[in-house]
Structures are given as C-alpha cells and as structure tokens.
Write the structure tokens for this entry.
Amino acid sequence: MKTPKVIGWREWVELPDWGLTLRAKADTGARSSAIDCAEIEHLPNHRVRFTLRLDRKGRRVVTLEEPIADIKVVRSSTGHAHERIFVETTLALAGRKKTILVSLVCRRRMIHRMLLGRTSLGPEFIVDSSVDHWATPKKKLARPSKRPKD
C-alpha cells in the first residue's frame, strides 16, 4: 500500500469522468461525500439525471446522467435523516485517482460545492485540518474541463 498523501481541509479536486474541477472541503466528521445538485430526476433503468451547481449562486451548472450506485438514508449534521441517491465517479487529488461514491444533495447554502467524507478520503489521504490547500493552489476557478472521449 502506498503512503497516504497529506491534504488540507480544503482542496481543488478533479472529477475526470464528468470533466470537472471544483473546490471541495475534506470533512473527516462526515462518513459519505456529497455534491451540490440543483435538480435530481429519477430515470428508468436505475439511472438519475442531475444538475451540478459549480458556484454558490447556481449561475454555472452542468447536467449529467449516471447509473444509480446506491440509495441510502444519510443523517445530516443537523441530525435529520434523508434518503439520498449515490453515484460513482473518479476523484483525482494530489496525484492519486480513486473511484468514490458521492451523494446528490442540495448544498446551496454551504460554502463548498463538494464535501469529501471519510470513505472517499481513507486510506489514500490524511487531512491536516490546520492547512488550507496543502496539495493544490489556493486560487483557481471551478470549471468544466474537456470531457474525456469515449
């Protein structure tokens, strides 16, 4: 097993399957990861269409369609339990790539569009909560990048 990479409590992450780069908060207190969605639509054949907000005001959005990987009840930080849809994608951070599950949820009121929970972080990453952006530069812009060709 490789030595874990140290990351800060906030980092720029790539989601290459979706052609996205965005800032995420590493939250070791959260079990699962979450990403900010404006719309979530169940489709036939166990699929979901969702619109990701790339900025807090929802002016820049990307609509994607993926197979549903799981549906679980998740307890929020306020203690309320909600059923959430999870999809699978690739996370690229600090020179490492791994497949993660991410829940689709409205994070409109939150500062960060994405939250990286323990299951997405470990064992490949160690979070230094005293550092903002250990592995990636502080200033960048959340953006769609070129989507990989199939």
Remarks:
- Residues 118-121 form the longest helix (4 residues).
- The radius of gyration is 15 Å.
